Amino acid sequence: MPKPNVYDLLIAGAGPAGLSAAIAAAKAGLRVAVFERSKEIGYPVHTSGGSWITELRRLGVPERFMHPIRTGKFLAPAATASFSYETPVSCILDVRGLYQYLAGQAAAVGADIFPSAGVEYAVLQDHQPCGLKVRNHGEFFAPLLIDATGVAGVLAQQMNLRGPITRYGRGAEYDFYWPEWPGDTIALLFGSLAPKGYAWVFPHGEARARIGIGVLYPEASTEPRKLLHALLARGEIAGCPLIRRAALEFHLGTIPAVPPLQKTSAAGLMVVGDAGGLISTLLGEGIRFALDIGRMAGEVAAEAHQVGRFDAEFLTRYDERWRERYGRLFAWGWAINQRLAEYDDNAWNEKIALLSQFPVEAIPALLQGDWSTPLLLALLWHHRRRLSRTMWRYFYKNMWKKS
Questions:
Q1: What are residue 132's phi and psi, to 5 degrees?
Q2: DSSP-derived 3-state class of residue 111
Q3: What's the burial of 15, exposed, middle or buried (CB within 10 Å: 0-12/13-18/19+)?
Q4: How many Å apart are CA 350 and CA 369, to the nearest integer?
Q5: How many angstroms separate the Cα of 127 from the Cα of each of 7, 10, 16, 141, 311?
Q6: How much is the pTM?
Q7: I want to staple 10 with a disulfide (CB 3.0 to 4.6 A). Which of 2, 142, 189, 339 is the partner?
């Protein structure tokens, strides 16, 4: 009988990255424990849940957690771009439902899950992680750890892979009953109503819609909740009146707005999700990357156990895998994010007017970061004089020449 507090893999954090890692590792036969500081998996909600249907299907997410979207509206103070699709390409996720589903999948393949169990620090032996100190539960031991603690990056900071996040996005969101809003339409609003960020309306079924604002710090000077209340006080959003509405939930969230860590692994440790900055900072999208990169970490954990190697050199294969698939996408999103943070109302009017000239089939690739598609390459080349010099130089160096 194995000791109850000794495992093959310990995971700090039960978000999509940590749970995806747990599923992959437990499927491979590892004894896995996942520790979550919240009292419930998937609550409180920290994300609005926008994502892409094809990518989620590839990652095995059941359709029942996806609310399909057919129309997307982009609004600046004096410009609008609208795109509609007969077959939906994007969706709004049932975030809580998906996270609890992932936890159930992890449990079904043998992972132990501990809610209300915040990880305090890594236990070290000869300067290498060998376990976790868990609030209210004591110490657990394993030769390999995964840090999925979000922006806090508890283990990554302890092992000197990163310091505190100094640039981040902070969002505030109400989940409303709002029957007037069309249930298959999202809206993204840019400009002075959400300086250094953007606002959104994301419907997710049953006359419900998430209305939120996110801004970048330290560039922003106003707290997003205050901006959100000002938006709601206008009495309408994107031409739709806020008449019969009732707030059913309030969410706060923080995401890193920095490039990925230079190293997301060390001896006995891998870092996944927000803890490693593994998101697209273009629009703050992270769930699909968390699912995929978390799975990669779980697979590498299984490989490490097969050969009995938990050293830094062996675990670099985790870094290599996610960088091969997403490295350029993350770098491009970071470059654009820095530029967008400088836009004022005039700049947003110009860029949304430009966006309105793009064909509908180019928009998903643009927002997903798939800039190597021939159509998008041709469009960006055609409009190169209207792109900023900094953005075009980066695009040409890192995308065009490599495509």
A1: -135, 140
A2: coil
A3: buried
A4: 21
A5: 19, 17, 29, 15, 12
A6: 0.92
A7: 142
